[in-house]
Structure formats: C-alpha cells, structure tokens
C-alpha cells in the first residue's frame, strides 16, 4: 500500500468508525477544547492519567474528515502509553507532518498515514489539532500535580 492509499484508508476508516468517541464528563478525566477556525474543526478531548500513565482518552471531534479521523487515531495510539512516551510520540507526529523523515514509525502506528498531509500544508492544522489538545491536557494534569 503506498502512502496516498494508506492516507485515504486510515482517514476514511477512522472517520466512519471513530475510536473512543464520546465524552464521559467525570472528575477523573481532564477535559480540553481546541478549535481550528481556518477549517471550522472543533476538538474535545478527555484524558485520564494515573501514576504517570495515560489509562484512557475520549474524543468528540467535529469538522473535517482529517481532524475527526486524526482524533480517533490519536486516542488509539496514546492509550496505555506513559506520559513521557506520549510526549515523544506527539512530538514525532508534529515533526513528521512538517516533513521530517527520521521518525519512529513503530511508536506512531496508524498515525504514520498523516505523513500524507505534507502535500497539503493547509491541512496540517487539521491533522495536529487532536494532538495539540491531548498535549495541552497532559501538561495541565502534570502541572496540577506539581
Ligand atoms: Zn479541518
């Protein structure tokens, strides 16, 4: 499967069957909202962190297929990771969509498909929105524990 095909397949699969969709609104989950005015994407993410590990992530995204599918993929890739592992993966994801080739494909899993947005610079904000939201959530939880 070439990259363009992978890109389309991952986006369509996760757009049609989003993973971890639906917020729980309980105190053990930290909520973050972000939006992307240039496309009209709205991102709602909840993260549950226990003992330095991301034990669960929920998402409720609306907008374009790239932002919505990326939210689904993000939850799948980051659940079960430690905070340190997650921060590295998030950073690798940003670098990958910006054009860096030397990245850890294995840790990125299905998210590797978003390498395809390099060809569409206007969509980079769509692809990274969910990752910016979880990054903000992780930072807020960690800072509140200090
Ligand atoms: Zn978008």
Question: How does this structure look, described?
Answer:
The protein is of the alpha+beta class. It has a single domain (3-144), classed as Sufe protein. Chain: A, CATH 3.90.1010. Helices cover 48% and strands 18% of the residues. It has five helices and three strands. The protein has a three-stranded antiparallel β-sheet with strand order 1-2-3, covered by helices on one side. A hairpin with a 2-residue loop joins strand 2 and strand 3. Helix 3 (83-98) runs antiparallel to helix 5. The radius of gyration is 14 Å and the shape is globular. The termini are far apart. The mean pLDDT is 95.
Give me a quick take on this structure.
With 146 residues, the chain is an alpha+beta fold. It is 48% helix and 18% strand. A three-stranded antiparallel β-sheet has the order 1-2-3, covered by helices on one side.
Observed structural traits:
binds zinc ion, 3 strands, Sufe protein. Chain: A, three-stranded antiparallel β-sheet, globular
Derived from helix and strand composition plus strand pairing, the structural class reads alpha+beta
Spatial ordering of strands, largest sheet: 1-2-3
Total DSSP E strands: 3
Q: What percent of residues are in strands? A: 15-25%
Series of H and E elements: HEEEHHHH
Query: What percent of the residues sit in helical stretches (DSSP H or I)?
Result: 40-55%
Overall mean pLDDT? 95
The rounded Rg comes to 14 Å
Q: How does the overall form come out from the CA principal axes?
A: globular
Which molecules other than protein and nucleic acid are bound?
Answer: zinc ion
First CA to last CA: what distance?
46 Å
């Amino acid at each position: 499967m070439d990259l363009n095909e992978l890109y389309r397949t991952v986006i369509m699969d996760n757009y049609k069957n989003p993973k971890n969709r639906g917020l729980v609104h309980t105190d053990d989950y930290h909520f973050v909202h972000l939006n992307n005015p240039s496309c009209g994407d709205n991102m709602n993410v909840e993260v549950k962190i226990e003992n330095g590990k991301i034990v669960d992530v929920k998402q409720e995204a609306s907008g374009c297929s790239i932002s919505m599918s990326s939210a689904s993929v993000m939850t799948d890739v980051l659940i079960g990771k430690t905070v340190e592992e997650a921060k590295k993966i998030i950073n690798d994801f940003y670098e990958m969509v910006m054009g860096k080739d030397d990245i850890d494909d294995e840790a990125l899993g299905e998210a590797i498909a978003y390498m395809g947005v390099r060809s569409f610079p206007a969509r980079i904000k769509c692809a990274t929105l969910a990752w910016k939201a979880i990054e903000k959530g992780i930072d807020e939880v960690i800072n509140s524990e200090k």
